[in-house]
Design goal:
Layout lengths: L2 E7 L6 E6 L2 H10 L5 H4 L4 E8 L2 H13 L2 H11 L14 E3 L6 E3 L4
Antiparallel strand pairs: 1-2, 1-3, 4-5
Length: 112
């Protein structure tokens, strides 16, 4: 089973949220539709701007905790290294997309 550590943003250089899930599509939908109350609903944080995939839940949770301790500018640098335009990487924002190999970059089908 895959586990995802992800960063959501309200907009470019906006409010950030770090989370972990075993179902990035479902969790993204919950954030976008404001199905669950809390921080992301309160601050309208719903754009998937970065993620990593792990095979091990404990490793994913450890990485999430590590990122939550990072300074904001470190998180911004991490996002901009892989996603300089702060594009929404969720499948819903990119039709026919498939996940990249290492981190939160989605490619359109047929492109490499």
């Amino acid at each position: 089973m895959a586990y995802y550590v992800y960063i959501l943003a309200s907009q470019k250089h906006g409010t950030l949220y770090v989370g972990v899930t075993n179902d990035i599509v479902r969790r993204g939908y919950e954030h976008r539709t404001k199905a669950v109350g809390g921080f992301t609903k309160r601050y309208d944080i719903d754009k998937l701007v970065w993620f990593e995939i792990y095979d091990d839940a404990i490793a994913a949770i450890a990485r999430e905790k590590e990122l939550k301790k990072w300074r904001r500018d470190w998180k911004i640098r991490l996002i901009e290294e892989e996603n300089p335009g702060w594009l929404d990487l969720s499948a819903e924002s990119q039709p026919h997309a498939e996940s990249g190999e290492k981190t939160g970059i989605l490619r359109r089908s047929g492109s490499e």
